[in-house]
Give the backbone structure.
Amino acid sequence: MLRYTLMRLGIFAGCFVVVWGLVYAGAVPRGLGASNGVWVLLLALVLSAPISFVVLRKERDRASIQIVQKVDRVKADLEANRSQEDAADDTARAQGQAS
């Protein structure tokens, strides 16, 4: 998941630099007043989202598989603990009734 996040940040940073260069060159209009930085940031976010969606598809699927495996492992561990607790409780009740 860290790898996916870093790759996503890299794509955003690349888009930010490109948009900043285009605004500096005058190819893209500047923001109003002091909002130029916000304009560049928002435009970079809008551009990087679909690029990340397409380019990082395999990495996103890989991260998703890892998350699903971890969740399944945790569920299995919880079920095993629950079974152990039930068995211990049944044994304690049986011993309590036998006395």
